[in-house]
Amino acid sequence: MKHVLDGCVVQENFNDPTQHFTGTSWSVYNPKTSKWQQTWVDNQGAYITLTGKFESGQMILSTPPAKLQNKKLSVSRMIFYNIRPDSFDWNWENSTDNGTSWKLNWKIHYQRK
Known about the structure:
Blueprint: E1 2-4, E2 9-16, E3 21-30, E4 35-42, E5 47-55, E6 58-62, E7 66-67, E8 73-84, E9 87-95, E10 103-111
Antiparallel strand pairs: 1-2, 2-3, 3-4, 4-5, 5-6, 6-8, 7-8, 8-9, 9-10
């Protein structure tokens, strides 16, 4: 993680050489909307935009609804929680019922080296 563009943008780079996977995200706080905005791109062609807020000790960023092949709407979200100076937890979740229920796709614990 590094701050770029005069400290206004957080850039994160991800790399998993065993899976030949690389990706990058850019996050910025938008004072006009009082929300965080993030864009993710990777070497598998993914392009994901997320928007959200930090409140009650959690950062929740969500995608806009997207129509699946079965015509259901899908929304994904990232939740950052248990945030401490040297660690945090991160869930990636998906909902196909407008956020009534969420399926956990993965849970990651980050620890500073």
